[in-house]
Structure formats: structure tokens, C-alpha cells
Design brief:
globular; 10 strands; mainly beta; single chain; 1 helix
């Protein structure tokens, strides 16, 4: 699998390409991610310098906290990005990449907040809040 991946929102108004390695997919079960996506958030991370995007004028950023913001397509509503303030990386929703992605699941975060209508049974590590290796939110 090459380290080049293409992706977009549902309507194609926002398109992007990533070059270089990306982190494994992190599944976030916090209440904000669940409310924004309707289930849980599944995202990888890419260095900003290794991502090019077109149609960024169609991205609306929502500051869900004083810690980070969430980017979505203003035309079709597709959730695309999560960006920690001051970071040089952007989390990109795994489902927004064209297939094949070559992505693999890595771990589950904020499982203490997960919905009561599903179980996590994939064998990946689970953390009640943020994990030691992933800095996603203030504790």
C-alpha cells in the first residue's frame, strides 16, 4: 500500500490527498463525537504539511471546546476533520478516504462515555478516557 491516500466529503465539494505515513485509526466514543457523527468517531492523523485540500472554503469549523475544533462540509454536512488548537496535525475521518485505505484500527478512547446500545468486541485496547499515547482532549 502506498502512503498516498485520496478522500472527500459526500458531495465532493471538499477533496484532499495525504502523502506519507498516518496513524492507525482511533475510535473515539466521547459524547461530542457521538453527537456529531451519530455513533463514534473513527479517525487517523496526518501532518498538515503532508495533506493538500481543495474546496476548503466549503469547510465549516466548529469550536466544540476551547481545546479543539471540528471541520465539516457546509454543503453536504460530512464530518471530515478534528484539529487540536496549535497542532501541526489534523485528524481525518477514516470513512472519508477512498478505498482501499490500508488503514487499521489502533485503539478505543473515552469508552466510559460510549453509547449503551453497542459493545466493543474487536480486541483493540480500550481506555476510559484518553490513552497515554494519544493526546486528544483535556482530562
Amino acid at each position: 500500500m502506498t502512503d498516498v491516500r485520496n478522500g472527500s466529503c459526500l458531495c465532493g465539494a471538499v477533496q484532499f490527498i495525504t502523502r506519507g505515513p498516518v496513524r492507525g485509526v482511533i475510535y473515539c466514543h466521547c459524547s461530542q463525537c457521538r453527537k456529531q457523527t451519530g455513533h463514534y468517531f473513527a479517525a487517523t492523523n496526518v501532518k498538515d504539511a503532508e495533506m493538500d485540500a481543495r474546496g476548503t472554503d466549503n469547510v465549516t469549523w466548529f469550536a466544540a471546546s476551547n481545546f479543539a475544533r471540528r471541520g465539516f462540509c457546509r454543503t453536504c454536512g460530512s464530518v471530515l476533520f478534528w484539529k487540536r488548537n496549535g497542532s501541526d496535525t489534523t485528524s481525518v475521518l477514516a470513512g472519508s478516504f477512498d478505498t482501499p485505505t490500508g488503514l487499521k484500527g489502533e485503539e478505543h478512547l473515552f469508552v466510559a462515555d460510549k453509547g449503551d446500545y453497542y459493545e466493543i468486541e474487536d480486541g483493540l485496547p480500550q481506555f476510559g478516557r484518553s490513552s497515554p499515547s494519544i493526546e486528544v482532549a483535556e482530562d
